[in-house]
Amino acid sequence: MTTYGMPIWYELITPDIEKAKTFYGDIVGWTTTSFPGLGGEPYTIWNADGAGIGGVVTVPDWTSGPTWLAYFHVADVDAKSADVAAAGGKILMPAQDIPMVGRIALVEDAQGVLFYLMRPDPAMEGHENVSYSATKLGSCSWNELVVPDQKKALPFYKDLLGWVSNEAMPMGPMGDYSFLDVGDTRIGAVMDRSAPEQPVKFIFYFAIPDVDAAVDKVKAGGGSIIMGPMDVPGGQRIILCIDPTGASVGFVSGERA
C-alpha cells in the first residue's frame, strides 16, 4: 500500500565512495551493488540483507559537504517542488526522470534543510517498508530533523508530506522534541537546534545490533563519536558519529518500546 510522505531511500553524498563502503560495511553490515544512474554513470546501492535501502554517490560541484539525504514519497514531484518554492524554499534540481527508478527533485526548505521528493517507478514501490523500518537491522530506524524553528517546520511538512505531530517530549531549555507520524507510523522527530552554529539538516539513525560494540569500529574506521553511547526514551541506545568522509550519521540498537 502506498503511503505518501514516507522516506523511501537514503543517499550518502561523499567525496570518497570506497572509504564509505568500507566504513558502513563494517559498522552496519551493508553490501553494495552497482546501478546505472543519471547519464549512465554508475551508482552504488546500499543493501541490507539483500534489499536496497539507499545509495552512495559523488556529486561534481557539490558545495554542501558530505551529507546524508532522504527521498520522500510523493504523488506529484513537480507539484510538490512548486509547493516548496512557494513556501520560501528552493528547487535545487528540477524534477527529472531516472529510468527504472522514478521521478525525483532535490529541494531545500525555507530553513535550509535539503531533501529529495520522489515518485518511484513501479519497480521501486514498497521501499517505504524497507529503507525505513523501526525494527529491521540495516534500515533507517529514526529520522531526526534539526531546524532553527520547529514551529515553522511542523506546518510546512504537514502541508507538504502529511506529517503530523501529536506528541512531544519536553527537553527543558532546549524546547520540545516533537514526534513525527506518517499515518500510524512514527518516523522520527523534529527539534530546534541548540546553538546558531549547529547545522540545519536531517540526521538519520541506522539500526545495528549493538551501538556500544560499534564505538571501537567507528574509531578504527576513521570516524569519530560526537555523542553517546547513550540511552534514549523507548529503551534504545544511540551514538551520533562523523563518518571518515565527513558526514554525520547516527546508529541505534535495541527495540523501540
TrEMBL record:
Parts of the chain that traverse the membrane: none
Coiled coil location: none
Annotated ranges, domain VOC: 6-120, 139-254
Record protein name field: VOC family protein
Organism: Sphingomonas immobilis
